[in-house]
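Hi C.,

You asked whether I'd gotten around to modeling the 132-residue construct. I have! Everything is below, sequence then structure, no commentary in between.
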Amino acid sequence: MSSTVTPTTSSGSHSKRLVLLTWLLVGFFYFYLSWGYIRVTMDDQQFADYLQYVVNVAGSEERPTKEIRALILVKAEQLNLPVHGEQITILGGGRTLNVRVNYNVDIDIPVLQSTIYTKQINHFVQYQVNTR
């Protein structure tokens, strides 16, 4: 007499649900991470464009470094970028104006709010004469 054990349908459906839930969590985590990275990249591109604009205007009008730093900090705050005054280096003035901005952006895990990735961003912008 042989006895065979057949799995019950509730056990099989339970494991399928667990696998589905696991894949959904992995998908959500990946989507959230990707969205965070894309958002940071888009905000940084806007910041880089604005930084080039400010350097060109400030260089042509020979604006003081204090004013340049204030304009950069206001734009960074508008874009929710973690830029502080000590992370901005302004060298020269007028046609020799150079601005360097270095900062880090953390991408967090949802719910836990712990950093999973830190993107280091460096900008170096020089005054450029517009030839339009």
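If it helps when you're writing up: The helical segments are 9-61, 65-78.

Thanks,
B.
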